[in-house]
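Contributing new records

If you add data, match the layout below exactly. Sequence lines come first and carry their own label; structure lines follow with theirs. Keep one chain per record. Anything else will be rejected by the validation script.
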Amino acid sequence: MNWITFLIVAWLAFGLQMGFDAFRLAPGDISPSFVVPLIVVVALSAPARHALWAALLLGALIDLTWLIPRTDGGEAIVIGPNALGALLATQLVLSVRGMVIRRHFLTLVILSVVAGAIIAVVVVAFMTVRSLYGDPIEFRPTGELVSRLLGAVCTGGSALVWAMVMRIIEPGFQFQHERGMRRH
């Protein structure tokens, strides 16, 4: 995998995501993710080790850009929930990639929705446990889960756009498939 191409595309994906997040009127509003389809594309095509490291990097960057309001009026950054969710979503895609048609656009759409839902559940579970021990963050689990799951459904639309874009730029990633390996 060409990491320079990956970093450039990740930078563009984060730019699109931050741009769409600017249109959100309230923290619970729904917005699609442009990073989750990139995680799925890499997990579908790259070697497993590269896909897991890429997911960890993208998840940590999502955590660094997510400002969580606190009860005292400040904002907090928590590194871990999105990174862990991205790792679990990548592991799911890695486990099913042998059973799907990798280059079909619906594969990217459906797996992006599923990956977005996995990330949403992991983030809400992580932050709910964190808020139980008295952390002064403003986090409402039910509202967050609903808005994140609806955002995961909207991510299917951004994945449809990604499917068209990735057809053009996929050769630049120089993905190497693990084929012909002997199993004992």
